[in-house]
Design goal:
It is built from 9 helices and 12 strands. By secondary structure, it is an alpha/beta fold. It has one domain: TIM Barrel (Alpha-Beta Barrel), CATH 3.20.20.30. The strands form 2 sheets. It has an 8-stranded parallel barrel, surrounded by 6 helices. The radius of gyration is 18 Å and the shape is globular.
Length: 290
């Protein structure tokens, strides 16, 4: 069974931008948009801590679910990350999902004391982190020994309010296979993974899921789309609402993506409302998925 289409809005963690972040979150909360995503760059002095901001926003909303887009694993050890995620989920009434990445911007990560890893090492650490997260959320004491993480005696808690999804922000073929084998979702951005690459990577996710005995139709396949809803635009991510509807419906039916998070290039509050009130409902109607 194919997942129904879902939508999200980007919320930036800018220092001094709390009121703006709250307004964008409330647009999602009040219009039936499923998700609000917050990027995580701990080394950016102009950003609030993502988990703290998500907690603050969740306390000011009732319906929208939040996710990290995506959490920086090298700077967030997985046992502590599991506790942070479970706490946010419990406090929000089960409205949190964990987007997780192996860490871009290596120099900035190293500058904050994070480990220096090759691409292969980063992928292996990501795989181990999923194991630690899953074990932690079961709520029972455990030990874990891996190549990158050794935890001799974890006493986890609190329990999350729901089964938190782990959505990997990865772009390569080997990492796509990790999504299918272990993760609940895939979160990528159009500038880094253009539409023509999506079928290949989606096929790898599906194949890997089937090999692992998992149902590939349950995997969230999230696409961060950057652009503008603008009558003057003339490409797939810049154009009138009608063009956006066609674009997203095609990305769903032809390219295998099922969740779309909007990052407007400017005029963000008005653009977010246009997406929530005009584009998302029309895509649902076109796909007959309420």
């Amino acid at each position: 069974m194919t997942r129904p289409v879902q939508f999200g809005l980007n919320v930036d963690p800018n220092v001094g931008g709390l009121a703006f972040a709250e307004r964008i979150s409330k647009i999602a909360d009040e219009t039936g948009i499923e998700y609000a995503g917050v990027q995580d760059h701990p080394y950016n002095g102009g950003f609030y801590d993502t988990f703290t901001l998500v907690t603050w926003l969740a306390a000011r909303t009732s319906n929208v679910r939040f996710f990290t887009n995506v959490a920086n694993l090298p700077l967030r050890p997985p046992a502590m990350l599991a506790k942070q995620a479970a706490t946010v989920d419990a406090l929000s009434g089960g409205r949190f999902e964990l987007g997780l990445g192996s860490g871009a911007f290596a120099d900035a990560i190293n500058g904050m004391g994070g480990p220096a890893r090759t691409t292969g090492q980063a992928r292996a650490a990501l795989s181990e982190a999923i194991d630690v997260l899953r074990a932690s959320w079961k709520g029972e004491p455990f030990a874990y020994e891996g190549e990158h993480y050794t935890l001799p005696g974890v006493k986890p808690g609190p329990r999350p309010a729901h089964d938190i999804g782990v959505w990997l922000g990865v772009t390569g073929p080997r990492s796509a296979r990790l999504v299918g084998a272990k993760a609940d979702g895939w979160s990528v951005s159009a500038p880094y993974v253009p539409p023509q690459r999506l079928p290949e990577l989606n096929d790898l996710i599906t194949e890997s899921a089937e090999q692992a005995g998992r149902d590939p139709s349950r995997i969230v396949r999230l696409y961060n789309v950057m652009g503008l809803i603008d009558p003057a635009g003339r490409d797939m991510f810049n154009g009138p609402a009608e063009l956006w509807v066609e674009t997203l419906a095609t990305l769903y039916t032809t390219y295998g993506m099922n969740t779309f998070v909007y990052w407007p290039g400017r005029d963000r509050e008005r653009q977010s409302r246009l997406f929530a009130e005009e584009v998302a409902p029309a895509v649902r109607a076109a796909l007959h998925t309420a």
